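Chain X:
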Amino acid sequence: MFPIKDDIPSSSYPIVNTSLIIINVLFFIYELNVGSIRIFVMNHGFIPALLFQYHDLFQSFWRAFFSMFLHGGFMHIIGNMWFLWIFGDNVEDEIGHTNYLLFYLAGGLFATLAQGISSPSSTIPLIGASGAISAVVGAYFVFFPHAKILSLVPIIIFITFLWIPAWLFIIFWFFMQYFNGLLSISASHMGGVAWFAHIGGFLFGVVVAKYIEYKE
């Protein structure tokens, strides 16, 4: 399933969410003009094997932070920014602009750490906003479970569009992250998609959103 839109309009302009999308796109344009994207990613992406080897904690933090704004290709950034566009505006509405920015960044850092702990010997750079976006999806799951998500759904050889309850769409999405995460372990490799960043980010989002609800 792929989300097209939800049925909850924003009550205020999502300035932070829109700015994050623009910043990610600008970073990607910069990547395309640095020469070798591979070398750039190796120099600036987060590498789990180096997580506990840095003597300079600032450098370790900087790599984890910077990696949230890097992407490996057009499909990578388009998919991430589309999810952020659909789910982020409502979460920003719910918790406010400043809190949303702090939540997004903290969720991304937590997700990066989760991926690093799950594959501590990996030398493959971790990049992308998907961990932070997963935190946003987790918060959306808590705040708007009864929203409807218009989804592109393949049925055998046909493709159709269905309005699906947000809780069902997100549970299905999370199950896919968890299932693929387990497969990546059993296959003895952690390359490709950072599944445990998605899982860690989502759980972070759920816990923080539940705490916000409790405090209210």
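Chain Y:
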Amino acid sequence: MKRRTLLATAPALAPVIVSFRTLAAAPGDLLNASYSPTGQLYRAYDALFARAWREKTGTPVTIHVSNGGSSAEARAVIEGLPADVVSLALAYDVDAIARAGLIARDWRSRLPDGSTPYTSTIVFLVRQGNLKRIRDWPDLIRPGVQVVTPNPKTSGGARYNILAAYAWALKANGGDTDKAKAYLRALLKRVPVLDASARNATLSFTQRGLGDVLIAWENEALLAIAEVRGKGFEIVTPSLSILAEPPVAVVDKVVERRGTRVLAEAYLRILYSPDGQELIAQNYFRPRLASVAQKYAARFKPVPMVSVDHDFGGWDRAQKTFFADGGIFDQVSLQSQ
């Protein structure tokens, strides 16, 4: 098929305490560069944070958000987008900004859980009735099945999709890497278009009617179902998935220039508060705070997962092996056309 390319339960957190009493003099606006599926979450969170900030300091704050594919947002920051904070899909994209000298290399140690205040995983979204009988990864490469997934060159979320598929194929084939690559090759033959971002891929599936199955982050799949009030789509959970850990970080060079460090640090730390974690769960991401996770246990069911750090040697290695020019994705993608 010819394809077009378009550019486990977390431990309880220590209490997060933020003092607002010294913040009144801080500048009153902030820009968050975020990956595309977080739009609804940050609309809700920004309103919560603005209210808390004004109540404690008497100073209004305006939060601006730049949404796009995770890697595209990282590149925009590197090229001059004056984001005070980033909330991206994967650590590799934050590390890219750090390598450009805009974020300190120790950014992971600044907040709990490696600066990842929420998690997600990869599931399948199918049309109501699941007429193609999609149950697990092997079903995605059956004749007549059309798959929607975004482009891992521009979408950080898409990289999790590819790694999850490869992890299943590797396990199913007794660790045979050639057979795992062959599965990816067959899978990509079922993909008619690689959208630039996870959100665009979701819209292609849910609004444009493209494909029989969407490989999606769990939060995107749950949101799609909520938007149609449970009618039109179903979630299928595969037998093996991957732990998605979207990180957040202050962009040091920007906040130093703009004088917004205190505001930016408070903005990220409140994500870990009970109110922040409640909003995270309400917006379909898996919360880190154990008490909130327990409250939403029926929504976020246990899924066997691999992780990038444990099973792929971390993002630097995974990026080089799979997504750098000439890597496994390029190899199987070219062969699938």
